[in-house]
Amino acid sequence: MVHRPLSRQWGKQRIHDFLQADATAALGALLETTTEQEVHYLPQLVAQLGQPVYFLAGQQDPVMELKYVRHLASFHPSFGCMGNNVREIDHCGHLAMVEQVVSVEENIRKILNQYHP
Fold this sequence. Notes:
A two-stranded parallel sheet has the order 1-2. It has helices at 8-20, 23-32, 36-48, 66-73, 96-99, 101-115, and strands at residues 55-58, 86-89. It has a single domain (34-115), classed as 3-Layer(aba) Sandwich (Rossmann fold). By secondary structure, it is mainly alpha-helical.
Protein backbone atom coordinates (compact mmCIF):
# COMPACT_ATOMS: atom_id res chain seq x y z
CA MET A 1 0.00 0.00 0.00
CA VAL A 2 1.28 3.46 -0.80
CA HIS A 3 0.81 6.50 1.33
CA ARG A 4 0.42 8.90 -1.58
CA PRO A 5 0.29 7.50 -5.14
CA LEU A 6 2.66 9.01 -7.69
CA SER A 7 1.30 10.48 -10.87
CA ARG A 8 1.14 8.13 -13.84
CA GLN A 9 3.25 10.53 -15.94
CA TRP A 10 6.02 10.52 -13.32
CA GLY A 11 6.13 6.70 -13.41
CA LYS A 12 6.18 6.63 -17.22
CA GLN A 13 9.03 9.13 -17.28
CA ARG A 14 11.09 7.08 -14.79
CA ILE A 15 10.68 3.96 -16.94
CA HIS A 16 11.59 5.94 -20.06
CA ASP A 17 14.70 7.33 -18.33
CA PHE A 18 15.70 3.87 -17.15
CA LEU A 19 15.33 2.35 -20.62
CA GLN A 20 17.33 5.17 -22.23
CA ALA A 21 20.16 4.88 -19.70
CA ASP A 22 23.46 3.16 -20.34
CA ALA A 23 22.63 -0.57 -19.98
CA THR A 24 25.55 -1.36 -17.65
CA ALA A 25 24.83 1.61 -15.41
CA ALA A 26 21.09 0.87 -15.31
CA LEU A 27 21.68 -2.78 -14.42
CA GLY A 28 24.14 -1.75 -11.72
CA ALA A 29 21.65 0.70 -10.26
CA LEU A 30 18.94 -1.95 -10.27
CA LEU A 31 21.19 -4.52 -8.60
CA GLU A 32 22.18 -2.00 -5.93
CA THR A 33 18.56 -1.49 -4.87
CA THR A 34 18.21 -5.02 -3.47
CA THR A 35 20.52 -6.35 -0.77
CA GLU A 36 21.91 -9.88 -0.69
CA GLN A 37 20.07 -10.45 2.60
CA GLU A 38 16.75 -9.55 0.95
CA VAL A 39 17.45 -11.90 -1.97
CA HIS A 40 18.17 -14.79 0.40
CA TYR A 41 14.91 -14.10 2.25
CA LEU A 42 12.74 -14.37 -0.89
CA PRO A 43 12.38 -18.20 -0.88
CA GLN A 44 11.18 -18.13 2.73
CA LEU A 45 8.71 -15.40 1.90
CA VAL A 46 7.36 -17.27 -1.15
CA ALA A 47 7.04 -20.49 0.88
CA GLN A 48 4.86 -18.70 3.47
CA LEU A 49 2.31 -17.39 0.95
CA GLY A 50 -0.99 -19.24 1.21
CA GLN A 51 -2.69 -17.89 -1.89
CA PRO A 52 -1.86 -19.04 -5.44
CA VAL A 53 1.31 -17.36 -6.72
CA TYR A 54 2.34 -16.98 -10.35
CA PHE A 55 5.58 -15.65 -11.79
CA LEU A 56 5.69 -13.91 -15.17
CA ALA A 57 9.24 -14.25 -16.45
CA GLY A 58 10.90 -12.68 -19.46
CA GLN A 59 12.87 -15.23 -21.45
CA GLN A 60 15.71 -12.75 -22.01
CA ASP A 61 15.73 -11.20 -18.53
CA PRO A 62 19.36 -10.42 -17.61
CA VAL A 63 18.44 -9.41 -14.05
CA MET A 64 16.34 -12.39 -12.95
CA GLU A 65 17.15 -15.21 -15.35
CA LEU A 66 14.46 -17.80 -15.98
CA LYS A 67 16.32 -20.52 -14.07
CA TYR A 68 16.30 -18.31 -10.96
CA VAL A 69 12.62 -17.47 -11.38
CA ARG A 70 11.87 -21.21 -11.54
CA HIS A 71 14.02 -21.81 -8.46
CA LEU A 72 12.18 -19.12 -6.50
CA ALA A 73 8.79 -20.34 -7.74
CA SER A 74 9.62 -23.89 -6.61
CA PHE A 75 9.31 -22.81 -2.98
CA HIS A 76 5.55 -22.37 -3.39
CA PRO A 77 3.11 -25.33 -3.48
CA SER A 78 1.63 -23.99 -6.76
CA PHE A 79 4.90 -24.96 -8.47
CA GLY A 80 3.89 -28.61 -8.73
CA CYS A 81 6.53 -30.78 -10.34
CA MET A 82 6.67 -28.89 -13.64
CA GLY A 83 6.70 -25.22 -12.68
CA ASN A 84 2.97 -24.78 -13.10
CA ASN A 85 3.13 -21.30 -11.57
CA VAL A 86 5.74 -19.89 -13.98
CA ARG A 87 4.67 -18.20 -17.21
CA GLU A 88 7.40 -17.39 -19.73
CA ILE A 89 7.10 -14.31 -21.90
CA ASP A 90 8.82 -14.46 -25.29
CA HIS A 91 11.06 -11.64 -26.51
CA CYS A 92 11.09 -10.03 -23.09
CA GLY A 93 13.64 -8.77 -20.60
CA HIS A 94 13.07 -7.62 -17.01
CA LEU A 95 10.32 -5.04 -17.54
CA ALA A 96 7.57 -7.24 -18.96
CA MET A 97 4.85 -4.74 -18.14
CA VAL A 98 6.57 -2.25 -20.45
CA GLU A 99 8.12 -4.55 -23.06
CA GLN A 100 5.25 -6.99 -23.65
CA VAL A 101 2.08 -5.32 -22.40
CA VAL A 102 -0.31 -7.51 -24.41
CA SER A 103 1.39 -10.74 -23.35
CA VAL A 104 1.33 -9.72 -19.69
CA GLU A 105 -2.39 -8.92 -19.96
CA GLU A 106 -3.12 -12.24 -21.71
CA ASN A 107 -1.21 -14.20 -19.06
CA ILE A 108 -2.98 -12.45 -16.20
CA ARG A 109 -6.37 -13.08 -17.82
CA LYS A 110 -5.56 -16.80 -18.29
CA ILE A 111 -4.51 -17.08 -14.65
CA LEU A 112 -7.64 -15.29 -13.40
CA ASN A 113 -9.89 -17.36 -15.66
CA GLN A 114 -8.65 -20.50 -13.92
CA TYR A 115 -10.33 -19.26 -10.75
CA HIS A 116 -13.26 -17.28 -12.17
CA PRO A 117 -14.18 -18.64 -15.61
